[in-house]
Design a protein that fits this description.
With 283 residues, the chain is of the alpha+beta class. The chain has 7 helices and 9 strands. GO terms for molecular function: 2-oxoglutarate-dependent dioxygenase activity; iron ion binding. This is Dioxygenase.
Length: 283
């Protein structure tokens, strides 16, 4: 069975709603880990070798990562949550080698979404987007630049923090470092409070983040020139939708009024997966 077309189970949905994240262990095969890690390393040596790298527009800058957009082991979590009218709005590749000297204190804790967290007035704020984090380094122990999260904090609008980000301040109560192996994937709600920890180990932290939202929310990634790229026509219709270029101009648009012309809708409809109990999947 192609797991890309398996919906979240009731238990998975319950855990995700409660904790704000799921860890999918061993989502990538060892061969896939080697392939994608090598692709990231080739990009890294062209950009900031030896230094930390936070490179936006992951597939635009590393086309070999296109297979991560709808990877069969984890894509089902995305459409089960957001439905068929979704795209990738924000993605990045992160490489963090060992930090030679202890860095100055800085309050890194945040929810994804930027101004959404100032301009939306509800409590809790709406989910709006989810993220997949593909891990390509051995972060099975804390202290290796692990992502730090507060489980269940996705329904909390504010964390008690310092009056200035540069003041030393204790970690939020309940904070944990996510420990993962190469090939593991973290699926998380954008609202979960999280922060990258510093890497004081000899292991270089390598990870790709793919963020998904509704197509009526603008894309932050650089995607305007993608149809001119040589690899573009090898991408599937669903991958092109995720990269913001679905449709031929005869009906499909980001508002989702014409589901029959939206590739992901067609895939789900053809497989009988438009579960009417999930509002985002209703045509």
């Amino acid at each position: 069975m192609n797991l890309a077309w398996r919906a979240m189970t009731v238990d998975e949905r319950g855990q995700f709603d409660k904790d704000g994240y799921l860890i999918i262990r061993g989502a990538l095969s060892p061969e896939e880990v080697d392939f994608y890690r090598s692709a990231i390393e080739r990009v890294y040596v062209r950009h900031t070798p030896g230094e930390a790298m936070h490179l936006l527009s992951a597939v635009r800058n590393c086309p070999d990562l296109v297979g991560l957009l709808d990877h069969p082991a984890v894509f089902g979590y995305v459409w089960s949550t957001l439905g068929w009218n979704a795209h990738v709005h924000h993605s990045h590749i992160d490489v963090h080698p060992r930090v030679a000297e202890r860095e100055p204190s800085w309050w890194h804790w945040h929810q994804d979404g930027g101004r959404q967290n100032r301009e939306l007035e509800t409590d809790p704020r709406p989910r709006l987007s989810v993220k997949l984090a593909y891990w390509f380094s051995d972060l099975a122990e804390p202290g290796r630049g692990n992502l730090t999260i507060v489980p269940g904090s996705h329904k909390t609008n504010w964390l008690p923090g310092p009056p200035r980000r540069d003041l030393e301040w204790p970690q939020p109560p309940g904070a944990v470092e996510v420990t993962v192996n190469p090939g593991d994937v973290l699926f998380f709600d954008r609202r979960i409070w999280h922060a990258r920890s510093d890497n004081y180990s000899d292991i270089t932290r390598k990870v790709a983040f793919i963020g998904y939202t509704y197509r009526w929310i603008t894309i932050r990634d650089e995607v305007a020139d993608l149809p001119a790229q040589p690899w573009w026509h090898n991408a599937s219709p669903v991958q092109r939708q995720l990269l913001g270029h679905a449709g031929d101009g005869t009906g499909d648009h980001a508002w989702g009024h014409f589901p029959d012309t939206t590739p992901l809708y067609g895939e789900l409809a053809g497989r009988g997966l438009l579960d009417s109990s999930i509002p985002a999947l209703i045509p």
